[in-house]
Design a protein that fits this description.
The structure is a single chain. The chain is α+β, with helices and mostly antiparallel strands. It has 2 domains: 37 residues; 67 residues, Nuclear Transport Factor 2, Chain: A. The chain has 2 helices and 4 strands; from the N terminus they run αβαβββ. This is PepSY domain-containing protein.
Length: 105
């Protein structure tokens, strides 16, 4: 009986890890799609609009911004790309619309 419970627990953990990996892959694909469509220009971090900066800070408490970029979509809307570095030096990008909402196509 104990072995059945243990096997079920291991199966549950494995499926949870699989779904988490799938979610990361989808987010990475979305980032590539946004970057491929737009030509970003680096801006000073203090030029990020307050709405965007507040949203980033709320979602990423305690994370310092490494670099900031801006691009304009075909419809005239501005997109902000915020880059951060982790302890290992890996850069992660976050994309926001002018109103602080997450950027989508």
């Amino acid at each position: 009986m104990k072995s059945i419970v243990i096997m079920a627990f291991v199966a549950l953990l494995g499926s949870t890890a699989l779904f988490a990996t799938m979610n990361v892959q989808v987010k990475q694909a979305q980032v590539v799609a946004v970057e491929d469509e737009l030509a970003f220009t680096e801006i000073a971090v203090d030029k990020i609009p307050q709405l965007v900066a507040d949203k980033f800070a709320k979602e990423n408490e305690g994370v310092a911004i490494f670099k900031a970029y801006t691009a304009t979509k075909a419809d005239g809307k501005v997109v902000y790309k915020i880059s951060v570095k982790d302890a290992e030096g890996q850069v992660q990008d976050f994309f926001y619309n002018e109103d602080g909402s997450a950027c989508s196509k």
